[in-house]
Amino acid sequence: MTLDSLPPLVRAEIVHVDWDALAPEEGKRLRALGIDQGARVAISHRGIFAGRDPIALMIGRMTVALRRVHAKAMTVREI
């Protein structure tokens, strides 16, 4: 399942990131925030408008706003 389809508040681990689907500078920023393979995450909530962007992603003790297109590039498994 991809991160964008993960239900809210369900804990998951990122098992794969398709870095080729993202611009190099976006990938660098996500890695700097700790969003990479092995990271444990959960979606706290989604945007309320048409594309449901952005996604509020909980990682560790921080919450990060993530675009849906970035979340689609990440494969997760529930834990």
Automatic annotation (TrEMBL):
Q: State the UniProt keywords alphabetically.
A: Iron
For this UniProt entry, the molecular function terms from Gene Ontology, in alphabetical order, are: transition metal ion binding
Task: Give residue ranges for domain Ferrous iron transporter FeoA-like.
Answer: 1-78
> What SUPFAM superfamilies does the database record attribute to this sequence?
C-terminal domain of transcriptional repressors
Q: Per its UniProt record, what InterPro entries does this chain match?
A: Fe-transptr_FeoA-like (IPR007167), FeoA_core_dom (IPR038157), Transcriptional_repressor_C (IPR008988)
User: What is the protein's given name?
Assistant: Ferrous iron transport protein A
What is the species of this protein? Alteraurantiacibacter aestuarii
